[in-house]
């Protein structure tokens, strides 16, 4: 199960996910510096940590690495939601509370997601009719 990213890890991964291409430390640094004062070595360390944790893969290009996300932000978010739900002692109540916090737009997105998930899942096949004895009662299987 994934651990929630720290604030700086999330800021770095947000760029990697948004750009959706291999990125260098320098590119991430320059973008982050528009919001905060941050050192090259800090961004390099964060990307190295993200690599060690399996969030990004890296390839050498010249004297630098290029980093690419291993999964999408949507997959990360889904894993966090699944982990939080699994830790609940009452998953149904947790879902009801979660739905209560949703905006109408979020509920519509959830309805869309459920429709898509249902289309991707084959419908359960109907159970075959039970065989009946002459008296109309179900007959037992072996051992009955």
What do these coordinates show?
The chain is mostly helical and 144 residues long. Helices cover 53% and strands 8% of the residues. It contains six helices and two strands; from the N terminus they run αααββααα. Strands 1-2 form a two-stranded antiparallel sheet. A hairpin with a 2-residue loop joins strand 1 and strand 2 (64-69). Helix 1 packs across helix 3 and helix 2 (25-32) packs across helix 3 (40-52). Residues 131-144 have low confidence and may be disordered.
Uncertain runs with pLDDT below 50, 5 residues or more? Answer: 131-144
Mean pLDDT: 85
Distance between the termini: 45 Å
In total, the number of strands is: 2
Spatial strand sequence of the major β-sheet: 1-2
Tell me which oligomeric state these chains represent.
single chain
Helical coverage, percent range: 40-55%
Largest sheet, described in full?
A: 2 strands, antiparallel
Helix count, DSSP H or I runs of 4 or more residues: 6
Provide the gyration radius in Å.
25 Å
Q: What proportion strand?
A: 5-15%
What order do the helices and strands come in, and which of them pair?
Blueprint: H1 7-19, H2 25-32, H3 40-52, E1 56-61, E2 64-69, H4 73-86, H5 91-101, H6 104-120
Antiparallel strand pairs: 1-2
């Amino acid at each position: 199960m994934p651990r929630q990213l720290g604030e700086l890890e999330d800021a770095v991964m947000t760029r990697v996910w948004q750009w959706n291409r291999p990125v260098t430390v320098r590119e991430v640094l320059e973008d982050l510096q528009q919001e905060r004062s941050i050192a090259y070595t800090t961004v390099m360390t964060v990307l190295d940590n993200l690599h060690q944790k399996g969030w990004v893969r890296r390839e050498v290009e010249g004297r630098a690495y290029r980093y690419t996300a291993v999964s999408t932000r949507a997959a990360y978010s889904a894993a966090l939601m699944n982990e939080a739900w699994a830790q609940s002692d009452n998953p149904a109540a947790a879902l009801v509370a979660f739905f209560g916090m949703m905006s109408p737009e979020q509920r519509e997105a959830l309805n869309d997601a459920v429709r898509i998930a249902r289309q991707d899942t084959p419908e359960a096949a109907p159970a075959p009719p039970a065989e009946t004895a002459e008296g109309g009662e179900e007959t037992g299987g072996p051992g009955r």
